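SEVERITY: medium
COMPONENT: batch folding queue
REPORTER: lab tech (J.R.)

DESCRIPTION
The queue accepted two submissions in a row. Attaching both inputs and their returned structure tokens so the on-call engineer can compare them side by side.

ATTACHMENT 1
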Amino acid sequence: MDTLAAHAHERPHDKYQRLIAAAQRLPPLLVAVVHPCDDVSLQSAIEAQKLGLIAPILVGPPARIHGVADGLGVDISALPLIASAHSHDSAAKAVALVREAKAQALMKGSLHTDELMGAVVPHDTGIRTERRISHCFVLDVPNHADPLIITDAAVNITPSLEDKVDIVQNAIDLAHAIGLEDVRVAILSAMETVNPGVPSTVEAAALCKMADRGQIKGATLDGPLAFDNAIDLDAAAIKHIVSPVAGRANVLVVPDLVSGNILAKSLTFMAGADSAGIVLGARVPIILTSRADSLPARLASCAVACLVAAARLGAMRAGAQ
């Protein structure tokens, strides 16, 4: 915990500290760190290793990585390093490590998300599953009791209703993996009534009925809900919404990438939240961070990946019995 506490100058990160503590009880996750060619990405991997969260495999141009390490004053001679020619090659070689069962997760370094995902999604050479790939933010919001999951703000631009079934299920599985026993999913729109002129309200109602029919499992869903009556009990009471989710949601499903990105970044930059990022639905979790993320958020992203990988392994073992 020393590393996290040392960098949490502004406020305590109790929710992230709980996630990291839970992940530290697991064996370190074997993570292919894709193109760690700047200070932020290499430092994140090294700090996560120090906390016992990951065992990093660096994938990138050796001269550039060693140059960054020298600039940081860190010794990476003991870390495995897979040489690549450039960022696209780094992504391809990291994905190959997963396909060869030599890595249990991927971690984005100093390359564009599109470059990394471009290596992940091909059917023949990537690491897709039958589940739609989607992104979740796990936010540590000040004065909010639990971690808050927002999906999808980075991968699916304008998801269809079919896509949203997997997006919701990925988020529910994530919520259970990080220890949320009572998962309450709010399907967000601009209003809490179904309006045929606002397609996101119709899709929200359909998703809730699909959950009633067992097509989405493991959570209580409600929607459409506006943001205020999804997370604030008083706002829900004013609108006379009687629901186990309204005012108490811990998973927020947004209509599209733009609205999700704006919501998550509004909470980050206006409300002081930290946002850990994870991509789900591939064979392994993908740790997705931004250069603007704080170190606590980047370490929490690694912790979330550890917990997701452990939950997936537990589910596979249970299914094999």
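ATTACHMENT 2
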Amino acid sequence: MEAEPWRSGRPALDTGIDVGLSTFAYLSTGEAIANPRFFRTEEAALARAQRKLAKAPMGTKERARKRKVVARIHERIANRRKTFIEQEVSKLIQRFGLLAVEALVVRNMMHNPRLAKSIADASWSLFFKHLQAKAEEAGRQVARVNPAYTSQTCSACRHRQPMPLSVRVYECPQCGLVIHRDHNARKHILAEAIKAVGRHSRVIPEAPGLEPWGVVTAHNSGLST
């Protein structure tokens, strides 16, 4: 049988990727990528530096020095985050031929004041953009699937049922599948991607009129996405 063109010369393994906050990402293989929380780990130091800057007299050399300290902390956070993303994307590209992710509109999610800082610190937009770019360079494929109901749809038979967030185990009344809610979501993401790639042989587009991945910036928060 002739190999599918999008698999030619690529790793045989595929994976579904579900990004999160407590953990940076979960894979349909059952693995997890820890969230280093770079901003959170530097938050106290940044707050101290910003307080010292606020107390320094305007127009003085002391204030200029304090401003540089704040800028260095922001730069350190950004550099660590960028290095982390590059390293994790490189590992994924080496291992997988098809990488399925949710087509999240990050800019809309940032409107939630309780989650905005954590989402920005996780830097999902940067991850998605880098994953797409490196996949194209390496001849891999990234498929974006509709994020709706991924944890409420059975990854085995596609039965959908309402599930409050407090319920962490998916029990399918149709086919009998019993699986952790998050693992079910990742497997469903991958199944949807494989189905779409087989049908269209192309990356699933996001909603029209949106920037890729819903890119958002937070210039004043010290966070980069």
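NOTES FROM REPORTER
The first helix runs from residue 38 to 55.
No errors were logged for either attachment.
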